Amino acid sequence: METPKIFESEYRFCSILWDHEPIGSTALVALCKEQLGWSKATTYTVIRRLSERGVVKNENAVVTALVSREQAETREIDELLETRFGGSLPAFVAAFSKRQKLSDEQLQEILRIIED
After folding, report:
1. Average pLDDT over residues 32-50
2. pLDDT value at position 49?
3. What sign for the dihedral angle of Cα 91, 96, 98, 104?
4. Rg (CA), the chain
5. For residue 78, is it within any domain?
6. pLDDT average, residue stretch 17-41
7. Number of domains comprising the chain
8. Are residues 112 and 59 in the same domain?
9. Cα 67 from Cα 51, distance rounded (Å)
């Protein structure tokens, strides 16, 4: 099953959820008000929408993620590679390295990841 798309404001919500799950919906509303400035209604709307798309589960007023942070990030990177770089990882790395100078330590870490 493909990981559902999580939009930017939803991702900020999910970050709070991932850091605190499982969490009661009342406590989640309070965190969203504090960290995002959201109303109770907005938070419950986002929970409902994400539940409908299979991103979160709200059962007995306890909210848990069905999609992990890693799954969401991987989907976002895959989409970026496909839409902006024609699916080419080398083109992405070339564009990234032109924009930002990589330290020797970062280059070694990238090489280690590639070798694994």
Report:
1. 97
2. 97
3. negative
4. 18
5. no
6. 98
7. 2
8. no
9. 11
Residue 61: give its domain's CATH number: 1.10.10.10
Question: 63, 43 in Cβ contact below 8 A?
Answer: no
Question: What range defines the domain where residue 39 resides?
Answer: 8-69
Same domain? 56 vs 93: no
pLDDT at 75: 93
Same domain assignment for residues 61 and 95: no
pLDDT, tens digit, 9 for 90 and up, residues 74-99: 999 999 999 999 988 888 888 877 87
Q: Which tokens in the block code for residue 116? A: 């694994």
- Judge whether 24 lies within some domain: yes
Reference 67, options 79, 51, 80; nearest CA is: 51
Token pair 């989907």 in the structure block, residue: 75
